[in-house]
Structures are given as structure tokens and as C-alpha cells.
Design brief:
Length: about 400
């Protein structure tokens, strides 16, 4: 892939809630061997939103950071798409609230896309099409924001999480160019959330089979380059390891070599998911940030190691189901853009919840342990006349 030829991601920025539950605490409370979580599922911590985090505030916080770090004027954004499956409103899009909070121009197309975990990815390819259709268009913003909760004591409980990632899409991307390679759609009930259900209904084993079917369908359509990095939608890291094992078989990689290939080409992208948990629409983008932050950390002064021409595959899966496989290539300025990510530091700065605090939060108690002195951020400040209100605060 020639990195200069494609529209793509100019910059990306994350918002991670300021508190987390260590999976050791969950294992003790549920009387489960912690190795099941650490080794069997591959998760160590999960981000828990506080009562003043929601899809809108988290998405707006990621968007605010994106604007500040990219230096792009919000008035230049002509398209804003929010991908989410945990919206609070069935009619008014979260995107319209975020549009207002970020001060984006009225001459902007603003909407949500719902397709389980793939909503933001459909948003990204739509934004790429929109930019490619007219050279007078400069920037589109795509936000992935989700709270992934299955409920106390459920099978999905150890795979919960929350977070948001905002992407700035441009025709001369400083971070990476993107090209769509293959797509897949097939109506199934593997994970769904009927109206008025507080949590999704999930058929765990079947959902894994559906994910695998979609991944194989997409990767079979291309000639796979083994030297690329592989970045997957990550409900939990162990699933990605299993899926990659099957993709290795398509590449003709022997059983003996598959673990090493996974370690080198996939595992860096699982680093954040193991500490944040599933974030549905945002999970692929946290995986991508993990992959890029890892490259940045391991940069040497040797310019060849900047990986400029090296490609990546990005695979997104949304239950229900739909999938997209994309190819990406780092741009010339990726190092300068990636230096802003700092997800690893954001994770270190979170406050630790006890199991009792976690259960109180899930039962609706307004408990707050955020460890964010001085943070300037949007919060959900309550409802008036059924209207959700938000404030920009400076946390002391
Ligand atoms: N030590 C080490 N490993 C252990 C262990 C121990 N003491 N005890 C169990 N394990 C292993 C098991 O052997 C198993 O490994 P394999 O999968 O290799 O067999 C693994 O831990 C999980 O054990 P179970 O299968 O018994 O776990 P479970 O029944 O509790 O369910 C789950 C696990 C299906 C992931 C469940 O957490 C779940 O339903 N999660 C939500 C659904 C999901 O994430 N689906 C993913 C595809 S759908 C999608 O991608 C969309 C999306 O984001 C939701």
C-alpha cells in the first residue's frame, strides 16, 4: 500500500474513565480461579465509568482532546459520526450533543451509527467515502464511545469495560492511510439488546463462532501479507489469539510458529484491552493505539525502524453481524502524532475500586473515585425535563 494515496486518520485521542476494578477482586468475589480471567480470557483490569460518565461525555472528552492535540479548528469539520451501542436516547443522536459541546460548525452532517461493535468502523469508511467524493471537504470526526456492561454475576462480567476514542479523518492524514479491503454481513442473534433490556443478551460460544466466520470470510478474500501487524476488534484478548491462530492457518503458518507470530504481530495491540476491558465500538481503536504506542516505545534512532511503509490489517466485527477488513499504512508524521497518545499513562493514573464499590456503582449508587486532579472534562450533570445536561468542569 502506498501510504500517500489514501485518505485516512490524521490523529486519534482516547478517553478512559478514571477508575477500574482489578480482576483479582472479581475472581475472589465470584469464587473463580483468577487464572481463568488472566489466562483463559486474557483480562487483568476493567474500566468502570463513574455516574457522571456516559456515551456523550466520554465521546466529547475524546473529541476535545483530539481537537487540542491535532490543532484543527472545529469549524473545519463537515461530518461528525458517533458509533455506539450504549446510547441513552433512541431518537436524539449522541452526535448532536457532542457536536454542540465541541463547538463544531452548523454546516456539518451529524449522526449516529449503530451496528453493535462495528458502528464507528462503518462511520470511518463513510467518512472516507465522504472526503473522497469532494476535494473541498477537509475533515470528518468519527467518535467511538461505549459502556460495555453485562451485569453482576453474568458470564460476560469479566469482559466489561468503558471508554471512547475519537478519530480525525482527513485527505492528507499525518497518522495513517486507510483502504477498505473486504466486508461481510450476515444476520445472526449472537449478541443483541432488545429495547428496555438493561444489559445485552449474549450467546457467548456462538458469538465467538460468528466472529470467526466473519474474520475468515474477510481474510479469505485477500492475499495476506504475514509481515503486517494484525489489529482486531478485541472483546477480550484470548479471543483475538484464537482468531489469529485461524488466520495463521490461512497464511500457511505452521502450528509451531503460530504463537510466535501472534506475539510479534498481534499481542502489542492487546495491551490496553487487557486493562480497559471491552469497549465495543472503541475496542478496535484502543487496539490500534496499543499497537502504535508499542512501536513508539520501541523506536530507535535508526530511521528505518520508523516503520513508515509497513502495513497493518484492521479487522472490525459487530455482532448481528457485520465486519470490515481494512489495510492501513503509517504516514510520515506518525511519530509526532503518536507522541500525544499517552494511553499507558492514563491507565496508570486511574483509581482502584474495591468489589463493594464496583457493585454499588452497578446498582446505581453515585460513587466517585476518579483520581483526576486538575482534569478539564465534560461530565453528565443530570436530567431536566427528560433532557440530558452536560458541563465542562475543572476537577479539583
Ligand atoms: N485457568 C486457566 N484457564 C481457565 C481456567 C483456569 N482455572 N478456567 C477456565 N479457563 C479457560 C477455559 O478453558 C476457556 O478457555 P477456552 O476458550 O480456550 O476453552 C476460557 O477460560 C473461558 O472459560 P469458559 O468458556 O468456561 O468461560 P465462560 O463460559 O465463563 O464465558 C465468555 C467466557 C464467552 C468470554 C463470556 O465472558 C462472554 O459471554 N463474554 C461476552 C461475549 C463476547 O465477548 N463475545 C465475543 C464475540 S462477540 C463480539 O465480538 C462482539 C462483542 O464485542 C460483544
Amino acid at each position: 500500500m502506498n501510504k500517500m494515496d489514501y485518505v485516512g486518520i490524521d490523529h486519534m485521542a482516547a478517553y478512559i474513565p478514571g477508575q477500574f476494578l482489578p480482576l483479582e477482586s472479581l475472581a475472589i468475589a465470584r469464587n473463580i480461579d483468577v487464572k481463568k480471567y488472566h489466562e483463559g480470557i486474557g483480562v487483568r483490569e476493567m474500566s468502570i465509568p463513574s455516574y457522571d460518565d456516559d456515551v456523550v461525555s466520554m465521546g466529547a472528552n475524546a473529541g476535545l482532546r483530539l481537537l487540542r492535540e491535532s490543532g484543527i479548528d472545529p469549524k473545519e469539520i463537515g461530518l461528525l459520526i458517533v458509533g455506539t451501542e450504549s446510547s441513552e436516547d433512541r431518537a436524539k443522536p449522541d452526535a448532536s450533543l457532542i457536536h454542540s459541546l465541541l463547538g463544531i460548525s452548523e454546516s456539518c452532517r451529524v449522526f449516529n451509527i449503530t451496528h453493535a461493535c462495528a458502528g464507528a468502523n462503518y462511520g470511518l469508511v463513510s467518512a472516507i467515502d465522504w472526503l473522497s467524493a469532494d476535494s473541498s471537504r477537509n475533515y470528518a470526526m468519527v467518535i467511538a464511545s461505549d459502556i460495555a456492561m453485562y451485569g453482576v454475576g453474568s458470564a460476560g462480567e469479566p469482559t466489561q469495560g468503558a471508554g471512547a476514542v475519537a478519530l480525525m479523518v482527513s485527505r492528507s492524514p499525518r497518522l495513517l492511510g486507510i483502504k477498505e479491503l473486504a466486508t461481510f454481513s450476515n444476520s445472526v442473534y449472537d449478541f443483541w439488546r432488545p429495547i428496555r433490556e438493561p444489559f445485552p443478551i449474549v450467546k457467548g460460544v456462538y458469538s465467538v463462532q460468528c466472529y470467526l466466520k466473519a474474520a475468515l470470510a474477510c481474510f479469505k478474500k485477500i492475499s495476506i501479507d504475514q509481515n503486517y501487524d494484525f489489529v482486531y476488534h478485541t472483546p477480550y484478548p484470548k479471543l483475538v489469539e484464537k482468531i489469529h491462530h485461524e488466520i495463521c492457518s490461512l497464511m500457511g503458518i505452521s502450528l509451531d510458529e503460530r504463537s510466535a507470530h501472534y506475539q510479534e504481530k498481534v499481542s502489542p495491540s492487546n495491551e490496553f484491552s487487557a486493562k480497559i476491558g471491552n469497549t465495543y465500538t472503541a475496542s478496535l481503536w484502543f487496539a490500534l493505539m496499543g499497537c502504535i504506542e508499542f512501536k513508539l516505545k520501541n523506536l530507535t534512532k535508526d530511521l528505518d525502524s520508523k516503520d513508515e511503509n509497513k502495513g497493518m490489517y484492521l479487522f472490525s466485527y459487530g455482532s448481528g453481524s457485520g465486519a470490515i477488513l481494512m489495510e492501513a499504512a503509517l504516514s510520515n508524521y506518525w511519530v509526532e502524532m503518536a507522541k500525544h497518545f499517552n494511553c499507558a499513562d492514563d491507565l496508570i493514573n486511574r483509581a482502584t475500586l474495591t468489589i463493594e464499590e464496583y457493585e454499588k456503582i452497578l446498582s446505581g449508587e453515585k460513587l466517585q473515585k476518579n483520581n483526576e486532579p486538575g482534569a478539564v472534562k465534560f461530565i453528565f450533570s443530570g436530567c431536566e425535563n427528560h433532557q440530558r445536561k452536560y458541563e465542562l468542569i475543572n476537577r479539583q
